[in-house]
Amino acid sequence: MSKWIWAFILAVQAHFAASYLVPLWERDQRGLLPWVWPWGVGDRGLLGEMTVNQVPLAGLFIAMTATVLFALAILSALGWWVPRDWWRQLAIAGSALELVLMVGFLGPTKLLPIVWNLAVLIVLWKTWGTLRLR
Asked: How many domains does the chain have?
């Protein structure tokens, strides 16, 4: 499979995790925007509540860790600066953390990222020994 396809897939996951840092205002919660930018002021869950002035610290730590893992996985998949053999483990770790984050704030706009993460985890797990990047 192409390394560029996996870089795109992982970049979408990184976007979902990194968007935690900039929640949408209540006035922006209409249309398609919340589905591609799933965080909004007023979102609440096991990890706390998103407010105008702050985001829950536990979620912030999870989101930043997942984003860094995805960035490293992208670099690894492309063969830049990170050993090529690490991309799968980094992607699985990032997907698992992002899944915890999305379930921690479960809501309708979190369904797309949850399905995306589950699909990536299933593909990476089922093709453990056979998937090769070119």
From this structure: 1
